[in-house]
């Protein structure tokens, strides 16, 4: 199944099409919207079309994908996007034009997509956010995702160090399973202690599993 159309109270979630390039340009051109994303803001429609070709057409050619345009029902015009990757990490990602921030739109879209991937048999999803972008983490928590650990990465293509927080939501009832690829990949990986982090010391030990290069902060 590839990006089946979903509807919520206010939204239509569907595939991007070639007719959406102006809308996609409005999403991708804003520096503030794309500040915490692994690409630079686009400068023109040609760059937008290339982005669409590389990141959407390629996904729509696969047997299975979840690569959505977020559209308001009133005009079916894309104002953001929401995706779940089919690679092992099943990374959950999203972006929204800033005119529509603080309206619960990404959370509403996210709940529909989470319900769909669960129905379709995915065992879990993960999501990461820059520690300096806690609002993104708030969306993850509203969708039922739980903080697991943090790690520092020399982020590309922007080439500066970023501390990411990794969240996960399991659908199979196995709450002990944690996707550890990032944990094992990066030397500076750790579990943070912050106000709304529900992890106990025992759960922290389960995450680090005796790995001596990691620590609790």
From TrEMBL:
<dbReference type="InterPro" id="IPR051531">
    <property type="entry name" value="N-acetyltransferase"/>
</dbReference>
<dbReference type="Pfam" id="PF13302">
    <property type="entry name" value="Acetyltransf_3"/>
</dbReference>
<dbReference type="GO" id="GO:0016747">
    <property type="term" value="F:acyltransferase activity, transferring groups other than amino-acyl groups"/>
</dbReference>
<dbReference type="InterPro" id="IPR016181">
    <property type="entry name" value="Acyl_CoA_acyltransferase"/>
</dbReference>
<feature type="domain" description="N-acetyltransferase">
    <location>
        <begin position="11"/>
        <end position="167"/>
    </location>
</feature>
<protein>
    <submittedName>
        <fullName>N-acetyltransferase</fullName>
    </submittedName>
</protein>
<keyword id="KW-0808">Transferase</keyword>
<dbReference type="InterPro" id="IPR000182">
    <property type="entry name" value="GNAT_dom"/>
</dbReference>
